[in-house]
Design brief:
The chain is mainly alpha-helical. It has 6 helices and no strands. The longest helix is centred in the first third of the chain and has 29 residues. Keywords: Membrane, Transmembrane, Transmembrane helix.
């Protein structure tokens, strides 16, 4: 029941626009822009990410509730669990979407896993700090949007990491 709650259309629109914008910025920086990639990543953001990320946030709220008097350990736990949710496998899956929609499906292999692992480790300190803020300071109704904006920024970082690492 916790994972099947319907989401407002606004959440899907936010995912569609924000993830598409973040990836488009990354694609433009890498001179890899394509309309198929833009549309594909918009659909991934608007259909998949906008469904699964809020479901994770609801799960997290049920397991580690936010309370005004929450101790530091509880607040840190929320950030760490969020960091672990967006783990190297999640990043590798994102790279797969980039490859499929960016026209590089033939380059997809298990070699993405070490790149995703290095990207995760490289970005972990920033992700932990941002997720601490999002999970403990942002209102529940705005948490997906804040996370999507941060993910859009990270999409630029992951895209650059994929090229550099």
């Amino acid at each position: 029941m916790l994972l099947t709650r319907s989401l407002p259309l606004r959440t899907h629109v936010q995912g569609f626009l924000i993830y598409a914008a973040g990836d488009t910025a990354a694609a433009l920086l890498l001179q890899q822009f394509s309309w198929l990639r833009l549309l594909g990543m918009a659909l991934v953001g608007g259909l998949l990410y906008s469904t699964e990320v809020p479901a994770f946030f609801r799960w997290l709220d049920a397991r580690v509730p936010v309370r005004p008097s929450s101790g530091q350990l509880r607040k840190t736990s929320r950030a760490v669990l969020t960091l672990l949710y967006f783990n190297p496998l999640w990043i590798a899956r994102h790279y797969v979407f980039l490859g499929v929609f960016g026209g590089a499906a033939e380059t997809l292999s298990l070699a993405l896993l070490p790149v995703a692992g290095r990207s995760f480790l490289l970005n972990a300190p920033v992700s932990l700090a941002a997720n601490y803020y999002i999970q403990n300071r942002v209102a529940t109704s705005r948490r997906f949007m804040a996370s999507a904006v941060f993910s859009g920024v990270m999409a630029v970082s992951y895209a650059l990491s994929a090229a550099w690492l």
